[in-house]
Amino acid sequence: MTIGILKETKKGENRVSISPRIAKQLIDKGFNLIVEDDAGVDSSFNNKYYREVGAQIEQRGVVYKESDVLVMINPFNEDDLKLVNEGQVLISQLYHQSNPELIQTIASKKVSAFSMDAMPRISRAQEMDVLSSQSNLAGYKAVILGAYLMKKILPLMMTAAGTIKPARVLIYGVGVAGLQAIATAKRLGAIVAATDIRPETKEQVESLAAKFISVEGPQETSGDGYAKEASEDYAKRQREAVNKELFRSDLVITTAMVPGKKSPVLITKKQVERMKNGAVIIDLGAAQGGNCELSKLDKTIFYKGITIVGTTISPESVSTHASDLYSKNMYNFIMHLTENNELKWDLEDEITDSTLIVHKGEIRKP
Amino acid sequence: MTIGILKETKKGENRVSISPRIAKQLIDKGFNLIVEDDAGVDSSFNNKYYREVGAQIEQRGVVYKESDVLVMINPFNEDDLKLVNEGQVLISQLYHQSNPELIQTIASKKVSAFSMDAMPRISRAQEMDVLSSQSNLAGYKAVILGAYLMKKILPLMMTAAGTIKPARVLIYGVGVAGLQAIATAKRLGAIVAATDIRPETKEQVESLAAKFISVEGPQETSGDGYAKEASEDYAKRQREAVNKELFRSDLVITTAMVPGKKSPVLITKKQVERMKNGAVIIDLGAAQGGNCELSKLDKTIFYKGITIVGTTISPESVSTHASDLYSKNMYNFIMHLTENNELKWDLEDEITDSTLIVHKGEIRKP
Amino acid sequence: MSTALALIYLLSTVSFVVGLRLLGHPATANKGNRLAAGGMGLAILSTLFLHELEVPVKIYLLIGGAILLGGIVGALMAVNVKMTKMPELVSLFNGFGGASAALIGLVEFGKGAGDPQTAATITAGVVIGSLTFSGSLVAWGKLDGRVKSTVFIPQRNIINNLVLVGSIVLAVLLALGVVQDPVWIYVLVAAGLLYGILFVLPIGGADMPVVISLLNSMTGIAAAITGVLYSNKLMLIGGILVGSAGLILTFAMCRAMNRTLIAVVFGAFGEEAQAGGEARTVGGTVRKTTASDAAILLNYAKDVVIVPGYGLAVAQAQHVIHELEQLLTERGVVIRYAIHPVAGRMPGHMNVLLAESQVDYGLLVEMDDINPHFPQTDVVLVVGANDVVNPAAHNDPASPIYGMPILEVEHAKNIIVNKRSMNVGYAGIDNELFYNSKTAMLFGDAKAALTDLVAELKKL
Amino acid sequence: MSTALALIYLLSTVSFVVGLRLLGHPATANKGNRLAAGGMGLAILSTLFLHELEVPVKIYLLIGGAILLGGIVGALMAVNVKMTKMPELVSLFNGFGGASAALIGLVEFGKGAGDPQTAATITAGVVIGSLTFSGSLVAWGKLDGRVKSTVFIPQRNIINNLVLVGSIVLAVLLALGVVQDPVWIYVLVAAGLLYGILFVLPIGGADMPVVISLLNSMTGIAAAITGVLYSNKLMLIGGILVGSAGLILTFAMCRAMNRTLIAVVFGAFGEEAQAGGEARTVGGTVRKTTASDAAILLNYAKDVVIVPGYGLAVAQAQHVIHELEQLLTERGVVIRYAIHPVAGRMPGHMNVLLAESQVDYGLLVEMDDINPHFPQTDVVLVVGANDVVNPAAHNDPASPIYGMPILEVEHAKNIIVNKRSMNVGYAGIDNELFYNSKTAMLFGDAKAALTDLVAELKKL
Amino acid sequence: MSEWTDFFTSNQDLIFVLILAIFLGVELIKNIPAVLHTPLMSGANALSGVVVVGAILVMLNADPNNYLILGLGFVAVVLGIINVVGGFAVTGRMLNMFKKNGK
Amino acid sequence: MSEWTDFFTSNQDLIFVLILAIFLGVELIKNIPAVLHTPLMSGANALSGVVVVGAILVMLNADPNNYLILGLGFVAVVLGIINVVGGFAVTGRMLNMFKKNGK
Ligand SMILES: NC(=O)c1ccc[n+]([C@@H]2O[C@H](COP(=O)([O-])OP(=O)(O)OC[C@H]3O[C@@H](n4cnc5c(N)ncnc54)[C@H](OP(=O)(O)O)[C@@H]3O)[C@@H](O)[C@H]2O)c1
Ligand SMILES: NC(=O)c1ccc[n+]([C@@H]2O[C@H](COP(=O)([O-])OP(=O)(O)OC[C@H]3O[C@@H](n4cnc5c(N)ncnc54)[C@H](OP(=O)(O)O)[C@@H]3O)[C@@H](O)[C@H]2O)c1
Ligand SMILES: NC(=O)c1ccc[n+]([C@@H]2O[C@H](COP(=O)([O-])OP(=O)(O)OC[C@H]3O[C@@H](n4cnc5c(N)ncnc54)[C@H](O)[C@@H]3O)[C@@H](O)[C@H]2O)c1
Ligand SMILES: NC(=O)c1ccc[n+]([C@@H]2O[C@H](COP(=O)([O-])OP(=O)(O)OC[C@H]3O[C@@H](n4cnc5c(N)ncnc54)[C@H](O)[C@@H]3O)[C@@H](O)[C@H]2O)c1
Prior knowledge:
The complex is a heterohexamer, with two copies of chain A (366 residues), two copies of chain C (460 residues) and two copies of chain E (103 residues).
Chain A: E1 2-5, H1 20-28, E2 32-36, H2 47-52, E3 56-58, H3 60-66, E4 69-71, H4 78-83, E5 89-92, H5 100-108, E6 112-115, H6 130-149, E7 157-159, E8 162-164, E9 168-172, H7 176-187, E10 191-195, H8 201-206, E11 211-212, H9 232-246, E12 251-254, H10 269-273, E13 280-283, E14 299-303, E15 306-310, H11 314-317, H12 319-337, E16 338-339, E17 342-343, H13 350-355, E18 356-359, E19 362-363
Parallel strand pairs in A: 1-2, 1-4, 2-3, 4-5, 5-6, 9-10, 9-12, 10-11, 12-13, 13-15
Antiparallel strand pairs in A: 6-18, 7-8, 14-15, 16-17, 18-19
Helix pairs in contact in A: 1-12, 6-7, 6-12
Chain C: H1 3-23, H2 29-49, H3 57-80, H4 86-110, H5 116-144, H6 156-176, H7 183-200, H8 208-229, H9 233-256, H10 261-267, H11 291-299, E1 303-308, H12 310-315, H13 318-330, E2 334-339, H14 349-356, E3 364-366, H15 367-370, E4 379-383, H16 392-395, E5 414-419, E6 439-443, H17 446-459
Parallel strand pairs in C: 1-2, 1-4, 2-3, 4-5, 5-6
Helix pairs in contact in C: 1-2, 1-9, 4-5, 4-8, 5-6, 5-7, 5-8, 6-7, 8-9, 11-17, 13-17
Chain E: H1 2-10, H2 12-29, H3 37-48, H4 51-61, H5 67-96
Helix pairs in contact in E: 3-5, 4-5
One NADP nicotinamide-adenine-dinucleotide phosphate (NAP) binds next to helix 12 and strand 5 of chain D.
């Protein structure tokens, strides 16, 4: 079976779906690997690293022609799809719920397509869960980005030139990214508070020695590890509970998402206006509309002394490690899907079933 | 006595020499304060904050006209000096040893000038030592900048998608900035090593739980807390001792300086070529020529996969706190110089003596 | 008594005292045991050979034979018993001691009771000796499985007390000479035996060690009483030492099990040790342990692996675990942390935690590297982890975590698990590891439990 | 002896044993003291009133008078003595006890020595009693400053031993009846007195507590000997308890001072306690303390301030200090950290350090805020700080740090300073704080010393 | 009543010994680590076998022709010795489990 | 020689008492925190005043006309009582220093 590794075409994307280390592991298992020219260069993986482990470097066209399986990180776009051939298998993140037309196009090409972001949230799938592995890095990098943009430092310092009070950091949404953001901000010495709609996150926040801001009144419950959409009533109570902390925060990182839905708006324009002069908001929910009313994807907005960064770019900015982790997820996924180097199409299996969006031209998930 | 606070004119400079908090303290002591319009805006200190504590906001010309003492952070330049009047007192960093012409011009204006960077390194002067207070922030920000630029993360993480090894950080020069850089990188979970020409720094490095790289053979000694210039022999031995660590480092921060001299070149082009693909060098010594052969002040250079940042900008980037600390140093200095709100010109005093570069038009320090 | 004999007795007494003292510390216990044994041997031999009266050779031969016989039997029993069967053997031996005391009483009574005090001494010795004998035998039988579990006797407390009061009344009557027929002394023996049986029979198997210790203390008292009879200081002091030490030990054992002596003797009706919380589908018994036992186990191990989990983070016990690790390292234990990739609640959770307490990165081992090593590991200390060490991932295809790679700690020689209760972890499933016969559960908040552990370790 | 008296003596003996045991723990020591005192009172009264022989009223009056007189004098002395003078008072009291024993011996000898054993007992009592008397008086005088410092006697060991051997020979001769003239018993008393003086005189003042404890142990032995004389168990056991406990205590005190008993008695020629390292310009004596003393001081304080310095970082003791802080907080001590702006070697050094061990930010207090608070602080614990608490910054215009603001810990009620030696800090100047009479130095690496401190604290 | 006070008076020494021994036993055992409970119990059990000295005395003082006494005494000695020998041996085995190579 | 073995034999009880008391003393005192050393020394000193019982016995048994003995006895009682009363009182004062308000 030949696996083709494509260079990402999305702007700002630095990652690559298979790193040289994982390429070696796949080759050792008996797979053929074709890597598009310079696919890894933005993750510090030059062509020579791939050659050293036994992969072939080819131009884009060749990769499309000779591969059985094509892997990418970002969704295949219209241009990419022009090059695919019937019977090929595509693996990438597809966000099929928000991209129905794309799924249609893929189906029309009579290919099969797996979506990495549809991975079920079960313990044994954790090693293939790219959302987890990438969000984790995003959480870290969001704090680094915030610290970089801030005109203040995070830790407490009592010095001969006076005392610098520790920065206050507020995290909205304590999923994978939120937790790592808490940990990173704590490490840097900030005073960290966090809030989430899922009450079970309180203990998790406290396990990182940060403060949890509970929302009074009836709680929303979660089922499969993901959050449900919040009621308007809840959103109001949440604002009341968090405002005191928000208005004295120096850095705010928002990561709240509801899968398949627009991100909830947690910080309104009115709230921003009451924030501390010089504060920074990093909105990691920007791609799904943003948790802050003012944020715009991939833009940095200055509004009345407040800096608002709408981004998803964080994992791309630590592309070496992000690619490493993505590759490892991909490796585990390929291992799960194949037997003797061939796909086994075990549709009974929960993981295969959930991730296989298009099967030989037929759409399995709406 | 009226103190005039000028807006910094240097490009990229965001700080202000007196923050509103310190302005209040000075006013409480009985000083008059005139602040140039928007002087603090880049440190998140709007005019209104100054007005609230009782300072006057005026245009530049007014400030120059009405003040007895003019304070700034960066050296007064030719343009500034055109506006000063005989008998005024200037306080800022002057770097008089490297700027003899500037000192001449100042003297020709028949004014007096104190240089904050000439502060003696004695215990009781520590509270007025702006080099210390600013280097400290520079050390912190250098790590944040490095972490921001890196394509890797600093901490160790053992995750379902594989293990990320901790980044290796190497610090050259363990002065104030170097120590804070060590502490910050350690906090973020990196493996940190450091080297310095002064042997007493070994214990200090170890007191932050980092590794010290000792240079074999005869040691150079230090006298007044500052380093002496290293011999060529020492430099060679140093390269040998550090190379192993350098070539596997992901982030290198250089802070080595010798007061009044060009910064020593510690990383040659040849060495850079053998560094790890993707590594980042932050050269805080760039203003005095740089510790890395390739670095250029205020430039980011990409050389064979290595990113080299030549900068002094770090404290400016945390302008709120940097201004706060600078102001406090300034406050302590003004308190030291004055009695009943008037300058007492106690030339016997070590601090006054060392910092007073030009006295009523006469140059005291070559 | 000859001066020499008296001196030797004095020496033996001292050896008992010092021996007991040394027995109280792991490092010197062996020496203490040998010292006490030496003192005892000396006392027995000199009793034989420094006896002042003329004794016929026949009797010497008989005694010699008895000693030889007893010595060989005792030694063989001790050497051949399985490690796990030792407590029941101790119980059996203890019963023999009691029987010996009772027999002496019988003989002396047969010689004709002297003054009331002597008679009182004799009857006391007989009652105590015989009840220890029968009680110890029952305890032995229960531990050994010969006596089937707990026997329920209705109204047992009333019956027991009746028998006890009856024995005492009889003993007093005998002592005062009110009852004189020698038959009554046999009745007394019978009453003592009966009481011993009634006393031990209803007590649960898990409490047997406490009972044995209590009976042991009584044997000591019986020996002391016999000492009074012969004005023999050695027996008196030796017996009393055992009596008081045994009693304190009994209380200490109760405390270590979190029970009162009253509860052991009268209350707990054959219930087995039950852990708090709710065990779900997986059955079996749970073995609880104490900080001090766990400390000894770790101290005498050569190779220890710590498995941290989410509970370590919840308890914020990262600093204590590091202290424990350093302490063990100082004592020459090879120690490492096994980090499961999904331990905790976020990727790298354990790394953040352990980095904070400055645990050396070199000590953190990944799952795939440590798994082959567990069979050589002496002790695995699982702290607040659950799912990541759940063997159901391998064994139970129906389990939601089936197929997830885990840390295979069940292959280690000993397993200590610290968590607060039997509650489940993130995946919400029960963990058969906790019911493994190699597993000892150290219940409690991780920070508190590890702090105790460190304190105990420092005492060693 | 009447049964009642015997019973009371038994009771008293038990009260002594239990009393001593309770005295060994800070929480129960007071109770122990009262219990032992009660037992003693009981014994004295019943000796008087349960005496079986006919005794003339005159004698009763005399005894009563003596008790009244002694009681009043003793009580007055005890109540009026200054806190700091207590050890010398104990020494004086101890001497009186010895004298009492010697006097009893004299009287009994006067009645005519009976068999050699009795005579031996008497002479032993006389010698020991009189040497304790004179030795205790000398010790008292030295502590009190009445006897001027150390007196140098050439060849003292030889002379001492000659006197000792002479006394023993004389005592034996008297016991065996070889020497019979009653004058010799007075010579014996004189010899005992002389030996006591010679024994104590050359020992340094700092070692006096050890000597007093040793002499105390001897008084106990003298009392026990007197007990043998009268076959009085109470005196025998009470005396022996004091004798053996006193001896162990003596060793313990030596250990706490890091010395051997031999060194105290024969070696150290009047040298005062000297700390390691090199003290420079500032003079005075340094008071050393132990982890256990420091622990008690902290435990019974209400308000404690910790001053961390560069040494805390060098020792990487941030986790232990946090543990100490938490432990004290649990016990109701109000505790804070005073952070000097230039403590350590970089701005914020202490902050980085304490943040790592998760010390609550709220507990860190800036210099200007804490300085006014020191006069109300019970104990300041300085850990590895030096320059930042050096009063020379205020007092000594010649000092290179003159004018630097410092943490004014010298105003606190007690100061404990932990560092490894008397070495200087960054500024390279000596620190008179260490010679302050309120300061106790806890020498050792900060991590090790604090770990000990925590361990001791947990014992309380 | 007086019989008992007499008993007390005449056995005073014994009673003092008894009291002291009780206290000593208590002091010796308190603060024992739990893991030593079982070996200590076993060791104490062996010590309680000191009753065998009494059994030997019975035999030594026995009328050589009173076979009942001889028999009972014989059994008493055998049982007592088993207690002693077995007790110390088992304790030794238990304690050996604590030994550590190279420590 | 035999005198001394006789002495041992006849005073056996006393000697056992002595040995036990010595051990008991040792066990009671070991592991005392250093800060209690001084109070404990003081308490032990008070206990050693038990010698006053002997002094009282001397007086009680004295010939009412032997003034030397009466005098010596009187002094012995006075000194002994000072030791006892003063000793316990001082110990009490020392221990009071440990008391903590509200604890
Ligand atoms: N790492 C990740 O990225 C990630 C993300 C999401 C989910 N997960 C899941 O989380 C689980 C992680 O496994 P795990 O073994 O670390 O944790 P776990 O299975 O959740 O078990 C943690 C155990 O710690 C105990 N505990 C809680 N607080 C404690 C305290 N204060 N002191 C002592 N014990 C305490 C609990 O038992 P008691 O209540 O009886 O004390 C609990 O059983 C896996 O199922 C994994 O799939 C991981
Ligand atoms: N904060 C800054 O930015 C900065 C920068 C440069 C210089 N300084 C200067 O550094 C000084 C700081 O004062 P400081 O009181 O913190 O420190 P210090 O005056 O240097 O004293 C530190 C003391 O700690 C003791 N010590 C060292 N290692 C130890 C260990 N392992 N365990 C226990 N004690 C140990 C040393 O005594 P032993 O050797 O006897 O143990 C030493 O006297 C000031 O003079 C300040 O001006 C500060
Ligand atoms: N068991 C597994 O294998 C596994 C794998 C990965 C993640 N997870 C778990 O899944 C959960 C979701 O993780 P994620 O990072 O993908 O979540 P996500 O990115 O979908 O959402 C981020 C967080 O935002 C929160 N949120 C949503 N709406 C909110 C609102 N209105 N107000 C406040 N907070 C709001 C969510 O509760 C969630 O915690 C986590 O608990 C994670 O630990 C489990
Ligand atoms: N006592 C005080 O009041 C006071 C105040 C501030 C700073 N200081 C001390 O002064 C010292 C200097 O601090 P700084 O930050 O201003 O120093 P700096 O900025 O002048 O130099 C930075 C570091 O570079 C090192 N260096 C120079 N040449 C080198 C070479 N060839 N190789 C390796 N390293 C080299 C120096 O030793 C120094 O540690 C520090 O020890 C600091 O603690 C003291």
